[in-house]
Amino acid sequence: MSGLRLARLVPEARAFVLTPEFVRGERAYDPDELAQWCDDADEDVDLEPFVASVEEVLASAEPGTAKVDALAAPKIHRALPISRRTAADPGIWRFLAVGVAPGLVRHRWPVRTLATTRRRFWAPGMRHDSNTIGRLWWIAELTRNGDDYGLTRSVLESSNLATLLFVRRIGHHRPIVAGFVRFFARADAPAVEPLVARFSAVASTCALDALDADTVVAILSDLAFAGR
Amino acid sequence: MAANRGTIALVPPGPEIDWVFDPLPPSRGRRGGEPAGHAFRHHIDAFVREVVQNANDQRLGDAEVHFRLRTVAGAALEDFLGALAWPTLEAHLRAAVKSPSGRAIADALSALQEHEELTLLQIEDRNTVGLVGDELEGESNFRALARDVLFSHKQDDTAGGSYGLGKSVLWTFSEFRTVVFHSVLSKHERGQVSPRLIGRAELGSHTLPNGDGFQGPGWFGRVVEDDRGRRAESVWGVAARQIAAKLGIDRRDEAGTGTSILVVGFRDPTTDEAQSITVLSEAFRSATVRHFWPALFGIPGRPLVVWVATPDGGSPVRMRDAPECEPFQQCYAQRADATDRLERPGDVVVREIPVEVPGLRPKGKAVRGSVRLCVRHAADAETRLQGHIALFRGPGMVVTYRDKRRIALAARPFHAVLACGLARAPEAPTEADRAIDAFLRAAEPPGHDAWHPTDNLRQRYQRGFRKAIDDLFRAVDKALREIVVPSPRHGAPGPDLLRRRFPVGRSGTPPRPEPPVFTIRDLEGRFGAGRWHFTGTISPENLPDGAKWRCTVRLFEVDADGKEVAPIPIETFETDPAAAAVHIDDGRATVDAGKHRSVLHFAGTSNPLPAGDRITVALEVEGHHG
Amino acid sequence: MAEVRRKRARRGRTVRRARFVPFRHRDRGLAIDVLRFELDDGPSRDIASGTTTLDLSAHRFRRLSLDVEVRVPRTVVSYVLPETERSAPPLALLVVLACPSTRLRRVRRIPLETLAEETASVRLELLRSELRGEVEISAVLARIRNAAIAAPGYAAHAAAKVAGSASIDLLVDPPVRRAGGYLEIRYESFSKSPSFEPGTLYRLDCETDTPILFIDADDAAVRQILDSRGRRGLVARAREVVFDAIGQVVWLRLYMSAIAGADEDGTCAYGWQDGVLRRLLPKLYPDLSDHASRLEQLCADRADGGLESFVERLEALVQTEVRLSDHVRAVAKELG
Q1: Using the beta-carbon criterion (under 8 Å), do B614 and A168 form an inter-chain contact?
Q2: Rounded CA gap, B2 and B304, in Å?
Q3: For B479, which residue in chain C has the nearest alpha carbon?
Q4: Which sequence spans correspond to the domains of chain B?
Q5: CB of B454 within 8 A of CB of B476?
Q6: How high is the ipTM of this complex?
Q7: What are B26-56's pLDDT values in tens digits?
Q8: All structural domains of chain A with their residue ranges
Q9: Are C133 and A206 in contact (CB < 8 Å)?
């Protein structure tokens, strides 16, 4: 695999590459096969570390669980030292998911319906059914502190929290995510979903950039208390 | 009759050499009446096609064809006519003036008398078989070319023509319908000594002033009379050579075997204008190249050389004598050096087109093979015959240039070649190539200018020949289209006109700015004493006359993403002026304003909210009628 | 169904929404201006006051510096704070630069007490590598701590947003634009890709950033018709009908996809769906005067009847849109 470089899969490739056989894992693509659908990425990145990190994940994480996310996100992020500008291009995540690490997508999310799995290879964004690899990289980017991926791991270990937080604006603010993780780490933490919704409602009156983790924990505690 | 030519002293060729015309009833010449010249149009191209093809078919190796155009006048004319036994011929010509094609003969006779000049065309082929064969019996070159009309007896299966009819073109181009053959044979029957000489006139049926009736054809040669009747047979050996010398068609030794054909009084029957020898010789050159470039400059190992000479000198024809055909020749030449697609002028794309020809009758097997389509991207300047496809097979004669300009309006400019049968891969022809060549030869009509179902096909092949030909041309058209219609590259843009039908990026037709039906303004919200208090105004602006209207007001909570989270029930609601009916239903306030037409102020409060200071609320006011 | 539709069509409707927070708040209380910018080591360039969009998409800069000035009127501070807090406002001015594509937020926090004058100047340093597309620059005034004693009608909680500004847009890249605003159409060899059903002529792929209509390139005879440009004659007529046949299905699918992808607040799963809805909704709800209310009606109808309920309505609409019957008549005329 050495010599494999980052590329971007063009949007129109979707009809050609996301065949049922591919989505179900019955076939894979050589980089050469995909070349006709690829453009150069903004950055030239050697994918050897990425491939190695994916192999580690496949070897050690139990399939179909949030543990895959928690393990994979920091590894993927470290292995892909790309700028946010580059990472904002859905094409590279499509390339990585379809051409380089389709196994990781299916390892994390066993194929149930073709439509949903297609989204996991293709759709940009932070939904749980968006491009699996791009989503994990972005969550790591938004939650890391330098080279410390502690928060990344914590938030991803709770699949539910990650699913709810990162599709909202509040998920784009590291202190808010940190507050949530700290609050829900408590043994007596209430159900996640209603509290995320309540918090987002309260946050509508706030400058999100002014919220620190302590304040978030305080608000969550108030809401949890009020809701009881 | 000879007295009519009082100014010319006639020297007869010899006591036993003369013209003998077939009397009525017909002799063993297997045709009667008019020459078959009317069967297809004759112009110089057809003439050149036929005569070169004849030579090409009769080749024993590297063949040459020499066209020589000259005029004879004065003493030379006298000698010439004398050698041709003119008095006899002229008597019959004058008698034939009344026949359907006699008008041209009459004109020619008076022109000869007036100008005392005669245009002669000699076609000399070299290294060919010659007019071999018995005088009277069997099927032979001799009988096919000089005596019979309806049957072809050519050298081998690749022969260009399937019909004997073709040679009648020779007589059509003679204003006296007279042609003389002088041939050195490659093979002799018992008693034959080359050269051989015989002449033939193709007149309509006619009656001499003495009342003798004639079928039409006449023969120039040694007069023989036996129990089979009076006739003229070939002159042989020294006698033949002497006559040939006087006629100016003697053959030099280096010409080897082959035939010299003399067309007496050459004239292009399709034009009334007299053409100079220079113009005619250029026409011969270009016609030769146009129809034989594959044999002349294309197919390896089958070299054919054609010379055209005038009294000023001669030279072999060259490709540039027909510049419009050079693209075809280059196309075929690059058949082994093809590119994938036509991108630049000069690019050549080659496709093998599968062909299946039916079996021969009665029980032959169908043969599968292929023909070769070569397509060349034309340069801008190469406009002549652009969009045409040259069809040919083994003999290297272009059967036709099919016009395919309509194949696609957006097509790349091209010249194409369809090399069939033995011309497909002349280096190494296959059995299938031979079968296809034979099949297509049978598909050629007398003019050799097309491939289509013929009687010949019907007689020789089992059913399916029609479909085989249709399929061939359909497959060729399809392949040609694929090659010349710009093949969209991977992901090439689709039809622009279709694209314009989907203006998805446009915000639709920004519809006529409809005036809002209601004006809603002064919306205010304030939280106090545990409740939301809100006010606002709504006024109907563009209601239909007499329409009743209603207003609905609701409150709800939104989150940080602006999404609706939960409704906030309205508890009190009032209007000014007081409206007839205000309902609060499910936390929403509805006003039935009826036909009220002025500004309606409203104010209301929500239910008490314990945690009211930590949310964002949205106030929504909707006016509607109907 | 038909009756319902007629009723709906007769109804004229106007909707307005306004948002409120339960405390004193000045939505546009702050004034923000970009004074000047520098690209890489280039000279500093002044910007006219009041500029709301700064288009830098023609420049391939690496570094960008912006001088931003925000004015915080004392009257605004007085309005949003109870009297007890006005002497030492527990507020911070945040100058926020946000790039939605890269999820970047660059925040400069200026405690209001450090502000001697009404205005604050901030220099923002940016790298191209952290930006893509558009960048929004705005200012907010937020509480920095909870109030000791909550004053009714005033924000009391930390981080409460009490005032904001308009935003200034910075274009780093040219806006993504479909060719001329039209659907992308591509020829493909269907026979060479297993993705396409044998015997099909086209395929629309619309669950992606840009919908693409693929057309089979294999049959040159068909392409001849599709690529023809003439306005008259049988070929042109045939082309129109073929386009109609394609157009009906394509429009139907674009519409259905956009209907399914729309949210009440106007966000769509893919950007193109918004354009399609703006085209469709005026036709679907001719009596509703603005996009927001049409969108809302759409969502209500979708909740009521499900997606299937739209198919019948769209069937007639797409036929009239492509003018199928006109074009068939034109063919008939051509054939004599």
Answers
A1: no
A2: 44
A3: C220
A4: 2-272, 325-484, 518-625
A5: no
A6: 0.91
A7: 444 433 344 444 444 457 888 888 888 888 8
A8: 7-145, 168-228
A9: no
